Amino acid sequence: MPKVIYQQPDGAERVVEAGAGASVMQTAVRNGVPGILGQCGGVLSCATCHVFLAEENADDFTAVSEDEDEMLDCAATDREDNSRLSCQLVLAPGQEVRVTVPETQL
Q1: Could you tell me the domains of the chain?
Q2: Where is 28: in which H helix or E strand?
């Protein structure tokens, strides 16, 4: 079973078990993780699921698509090199992923 570690801006962490094939965003929304809204439901049209992906997980997912890249420019927090939309981070069996929620999304 995949596991996602959501780190809040204050350093608090919440560990959530997820289903394989679910996204980091879906998992957050289903479990009430603060700061990840996913208002569009994961169809790349809102950027309310922006997260900073931990460096150790950078190669665990497909590269940023052109559509995701454009939406990251609309995020409430300035993007960084490790910015991703969590709706595009689909979890594999046994995977452990760490993300940080931007402060401006809280």
Answers
A1: 3-105 (3.10.20.30)
A2: helix 24-30
